[in-house]
Amino acid sequence: MTPAETAQRLPYARLAAEIRTLLADDSVHVPERIVQPLPGGGSLFVMPAHDSRIAMTKLITFTPSNAGTGRPTIQGDVVVFDIATGERRLVLDGPTVTARRTAAVSLLAAQLLAPNTEGPLLIVGAGAQGRAHLEAFVDGLGVREVMIASRSETSANALADHARGLGLKSCVVADPGAALAQCPLIVTCTPANAVVLRGTPRDDAFIAAVGAFTPGMVELDPALCRHCAEHGLVVVDTPEAIHEAGDLLQAGLDVSAFATLRRVLMDAPAANRRPVLFKSCGWAGWDLAAARLAISA
């Protein structure tokens, strides 16, 4: 499928609902993903998963050096098979699945955990994930105002224009840390090669940090992470974050002590624990949820 055809099958609110359903499905099996380092700093990801009906594998490359070149940093496909017959049912566009399922996971976390969903929304990083999170939070939370920060002024302005095209009030900000005082919803989705967000979040803040998915990557200032752990609530997407959540690991935090998104669904978090930091590292289960939704469309 083309990127547009893949996106059409994966509306954000419905994908978030499918992810919630998947987390309660005991037939889901997700092996550890294979990450093969490549010459030049890139990586090859092989991410299989299955439930009782379908099996899928996401096969993608991640090439950080493509940033700013016009070539995507993530390329590849998601191949979906029928378990009963072994038949290949779908081939979805990998970057589109990655962007939309990541944003849908953040949306689900915000629906479950955010103390204040009215916005404004602060997005740090104006690439594919910034656009996907903007669209997801509009679709699933009804956000009407967004502030955008990016090291690329061109990208920031383009995302702000896209937001206005969706009917939102939008602006570009130079210092995302200064915008924390105005924004209860924050998403960081950068290449994660340096700290991009410093400062103290509001007591009613929800932060989704999605850019750093290896121990060596970082977006959030360690002091910000420690503040959320001490005064609020930290939730990780899956148990695998114990060795992937660069922001938390570099802050010296015990990642194993934090609840996962599945645990949040099973046991309501303490209502007085805020601000909330949701650390997302990625999981083939999210791709399986996308495959389940796409195949039912």
TrEMBL record:
GO CC aspect terms: cytoplasm
Listed InterPro entries: NAD(P)-bd_dom_sf, ODC_Mu_crystall, ODC_N
Gene3D superfamilies attached to this UniProt entry: NAD(P)-binding Rossmann-like Domain (3.40.50.720), ornithine cyclodeaminase, domain 1 (3.30.1780.10)
Superkingdom field: Bacteria
Protein name, per record: Delta(1)-pyrroline-2-carboxylate reductase family protein
Provenance organism: Caenimonas koreensis DSM 17982
